[in-house]
Structures are given as structure tokens and as C-alpha cells.
Design a protein that fits this description.
Elements (H helix, E strand, L loop, with lengths): L3 H6 L7 E3 L5 H9 L5 E2 L2 H8 L9 H14 L4 E4 L8 H12 L5 E5 L11 H15 L4 E5 L11 H17 L3 E3 L6 H10 L4 E4 L7 H6 L4 E3 L3 H18 L1
Parallel strand pairs: 1-8, 2-3, 3-4, 4-5, 5-6, 6-7, 7-8
Length: 246
């Protein structure tokens, strides 16, 4: 089953959905064979594998075609890392997400940083964008609203965490389905976000991050792996090639 309801139900605080991010049909088949319950692309590995690079450099047609080809290769729900929805305009962003939904994807990541620019969209602007997307796609699409506040700062203290929580609450009210906070790691801070934001919390695993059971105990509902699977595989490929060419 790869419908929205099945995918949404996998987001259980304390028993997180693990998404080992993929980038094409072949990687999707490999991760599916490992027992994945759902799949998600990462914008960085898709960009690297296709030669376009990250930050909305991958043409929209390729993003849509890639999603369709992944869904043709595996029978699992697919969420697509859609970055900033390829537009700062709420209505155009909404139209782009509606086209993404038409590929069969059950959800997407939607971030608040200004892709290709500086800083973050204002909270009011991002709320308008989420509302427009929700109106365009209806209730049966998982909008995983991401804030990059912690990526943009080295000081993950109380005031910044309060801003993260403020964004999470506003995103929930605007119609988001989940809340994604890269670089949030401290279990006590995780527990606070889980308590105060009425959305399933998504974190990203990375080398040196807390183990899965630690985040699960703090109430995390989804753990992504971002660009790290692709980077690790490419490093191994380089070593295999080096050995063969020696």
C-alpha cells in the first residue's frame, strides 16, 4: 500500500519511521529490499546523482519523472524532497506541489530557507505558502514542513529553540502534516519540541548523532538520513575503483 493514510500512520512518536533516503529507481529497489516501510528522496543525492547539483538545480521535469520511475520500480509510499517548491510565490509553489502529487508521491519536504539566497522566509510568508499548498493538494498529502533555523545558527540555545517551536506551531495551524528540524539533536530539546508542537517530529541522522533509540525515547516520529547514504556509497565506489585500477 502506498496511499497517504498508510504513510501518515507510519509516523508514530516513540517508534519512528526510518527513511533511508534514495535518489533513483535502483537505490529505491535496494532500500526496499532491505525492508523499508516507505521511501523518501533527498534533494542533495538526487542532484548529485543526476549531475545537476542541489538547491533546486534539478529541473522540475526531472524531479517529476524521477518520482514516477521510482514508483514504477517499488510498491512503497514515496515522499519527495521538494526543497522550496521551486517558487517563492505561494500560488506557483502550490501548483508545483500539486503537479508533484500527480506523480503518485504521497508527500514532500517543504523548507523555509530561501533557496539560492540568504536566510529564511519570514514566518508569515512561509505560513502563506503552506496554506496555499494545502489548499492546492487537499487533505491527503503529507506536507513535511522543514525549518532550517538550526542550520543557519551555531547557537542552539533557548531563544532559538523558542523560535523553532513558534514556527512548528504556525506550520501546524497552516496545514502541515509533519515538522522537520535538521540539526536538532539534544534529547531534552527534542522532548520539548515534541511536547509543544502538535505535529510528528522528523530529525535527520548523521555521523555522530544520537542513536535511534535515544531519539525514539524522546518522542521522535520520523528519522531521515539525507545525503549520507549516497555519500557513503560513492566513497565506497571510489575505493573499489581505486583497488581495481591499482
Amino acid at each position: 500500500m502506498r496511499d497517504f493514510a498508510t504513510f501518515a500512520a507510519l509516523h508514530v512518536p516513540g517508534d519512528p519511521l526510518v527513511l533511508y533516503n534514495v535518489w533513483d529507481p535502483g537505490s529505491a529497489q535496494a532500500v526496499a529490499a532491505a525492508g523499508a516501510r516507505a521511501l523518501a528522496t533527498g534533494s542533495h543525492p538526487v542532484g548529485d546523482a543526476s549531475g545537476y547539483g542541489d538547491a533546486q538545480q534539478v529541473p522540475l521535469d526531472h524531479v517529476f519523472d524521477n518520482a514516477r520511475r521510482i514508483l514504477a520500480a517499488v510498491d512503497l509510499p514515496l515522499s519527495v524532497d521538494f526543497e522550496g517548491a521551486y517558487s517563492t510565490d505561494p500560488q506557483q509553489a502550490a501548483a508545483n506541489v500539486r503537479d508533484l502529487k500527480a506523480t503518485g508521491a504521497v508527500g514532500c519536504n517543504f523548507e523555509d530557507q530561501v533557496v539560492g539566497g540568504e536566510g529564511l522566509h519570514s514566518l508569515a510568508d512561509q505560513v502563506r505558502r503552506i496554506r496555499a499548498i494545502r489548499e492546492a493538494v487537499g487533505a491527503d498529502f503529507f506536507i513535511n514542513a522543514r525549518t532550517d533555523l538550526l542550520i543557519k545558527s551555531d547557537q542552539h540555545d533557548g531563544p532559538l529553540l523558542a523560535s523553532v517551536i513558534e514556527r512548528g506551531k504556525a506550520f501546524a495551524e497552516a496545514g502541515a502534516s509533519g515538522f522537520f528540524v535538521p540539526r536538532l539533536t539534544d534529547p531534552r530539546q527534542v522532548e520539548q519540541v515534541v511536547r509543544e508542537v502538535p505535529l510528528p517530529l522528523n530529525l535527520i541522522a548523521f555521523p555522530g548523532a544520537p542513536e535511534k533509540h535515544v531519539w525514539a525515547s524522546a518522542g521522535v516520529a520520523r528519522i531521515s538520513h539525507g545525503p549520507f547514504p549516497h555519500r557513503k556509497l560513492m566513497a565506497q565506489l571510489t575505493e573499489f575503483a581505486r583497488a581495481a585500477l591499482a
